[in-house]
Design a protein that fits this description.
Two copies of one chain form a homodimer. By secondary structure, chain A is an alpha/beta fold. Chain A contains eight helices and 13 strands. At the A-B interface, strand 3 and helix 7 of A face strand 3 and helix 7 of B.
Chain lengths: 284, 284
């Protein structure tokens, strides 16, 4: 039985969103499609899933969910913020669901957060349908609706921390995984700046992980790959990369920062690299 | 299009093995069924998967795979062996694919490994079709083909380390997740013994995780839940539980022990408990 939603399939009378990677099909059961539109940039859906609650879907790919999206958002945010002793100016590239902004704004010493997101409709939809994920209103948050690579290209020594919360390296986000963009990030950071980027699945795309790692190694003296489980993403395992100009050690997580996933031991433990990935990432 | 294999489905001309949990269908593409039989205990298949190479399937559920099964086997074995300073007598309950035996036998100070597995046909099939997983022949390994709970019930202060590599808590393995069995394990361990058990998926079965944790807490002074990604299992995230009578600290992993996943930092990092699970496991 067909349904009227692109990207969704019907199986035994139930709606599913399916991610097909090499040899693995992962299908999330959908209770209801709450919102759907084709923006100038992509196809946007907000659905209610059986397992993870509400989810933001872009071009058929899960971006974040109500019930576990905080794992990804906390891992990509608190790691760089624990490396920098006191980040005041933070840039988020992408991050349209406002989940990363929510984490960054928890720090009272952060005085300004710039966020550059290409698609205003994603922010709008997230604010309306994903209040559990999206940051509440905050005067420190400034959102620019434009191309992230162009925005970063105009900045020099402007930020203490930059977080790249990009969609997958297919379509418009492809440039956000390439060397010229990382070089621009390096220039946009201050002399003691720290950055973190999502680096795709080490199970399905170890090539992307490896390219990101070597690209950042050629630009920054201190680079750490780190890993976390993110249940709603294909294979459930995700890599991030941290790059730092000066700081090489995690501060303890600030007391009073409230989290559902990360704590000091999780942040430290996530810097441990399984042998199999060390071999793939560090071998020349 | 139907196919002749129970538990497998055909989709667009390709064979899949599907795991259906609440709201999530995970389907592994199968290249070929290499072996299939119905033993007195269960349905056994060895298949060749596109993503993870060869896999052992019992009653339609993935038990181990050639390309990532070592993650599970290393996590369940090296953690208890790093807690005990010098385990000489080790018991494996279940473990029919001989993957845990392979890890345990890497330690030269281990002088005897008893393994109690209900189904001789699983061991036979693994030896034939999964040489990458199954332990090579070793005089120290003694396999008993009988009911694990009955075997353990006859033992007293006989082992330094016990590893429970049970199938899911449905069907014959159900008793291996219940309090009387854990109490029997406690009696079968020496006064300084350490045990580890797989404790199911914290995403799909946090109730099983929590029950295991409280059951072992009532029997042992030292209990640690720990977590790892296991890509071929549903949700990709798995919990294990370590229980120890005396030792509270990991020795460094022995030099010369060759691993593909674990190292000291991974073992230590895996003892970090995400806030969300700490709340579920430790709250009364």
């Amino acid at each position: 039985m067909a349904n009227k939603h692109p990207y969704l399939t019907t199986h035994e009378g139930k709606l599913y969103l399916t991610d097909q990677e090499k040899g693995l099909r992962t299908s999330l059961e959908i209770k209801e499609v709450l919102y759907e539109e084709r923006s100038p940039y992509q196809h946007i859906m907000i659905v209610d899933t059986v397992l993870f609650g509400r989810a933001l879907i872009l071009d058929g790919i899960v971006q974040t969910t109500e019930k576990e999206g905080f794992i990804y958002n906390e891992m990509i945010s608190h790691m760089p913020l624990a490396f920098h002793p006191k980040a005041e100016d933070v840039l988020i590239v992408g991050g349209g669901d406002l989940g990363v902004a929510r984490e960054v704004l928890k720090y009272p010493f952060v005085r300004r957060v710039d966020m550059v997101e290409i698609d205003a409709r994603v922010v709008e939809a997230s604010r309306t349908y994903l209040p559990e994920v999206a940051a509440p209103p905050d005067d420190r948050l400034h959102i620019y609706f434009e191309d992230g690579a162009l925005f970063v290209g105009r900045k020099e020594a402007a930020y203490d921390v930059i977080i790249v919360d990009a969609a997958d390296p297919v379509g418009p986000a492809t440039v956000l995984f390439e060397h010229p963009f990382y070089a621009a990030l390096e220039r946009a950071l201050r002399a003691d700046g720290v950055m973190a980027a999502q680096s795709d699945s080490p199970i399905h795309h170890i090539d992307v992980c490896k390219r990101t790692h070597s690209s950042l190694k050629s630009l920054f003296p201190i680079v750490y790959p780190y890993f976390s489980t993110v249940p709603a993403y294909p294979s459930g395992w995700w890599m991030f990369t941290l790059a730092s100009k000066r700081y090489d050690m995690l501060r303890p997580l600030d007391p009073g920062i409230s989290t559902r996933f990360v704590n000091d031991a999780i942040l430290r433990g996530s810097l441990a690299v399984p042998n199999m990935f060390a071999q793939a990432l560090f071998s020349v």
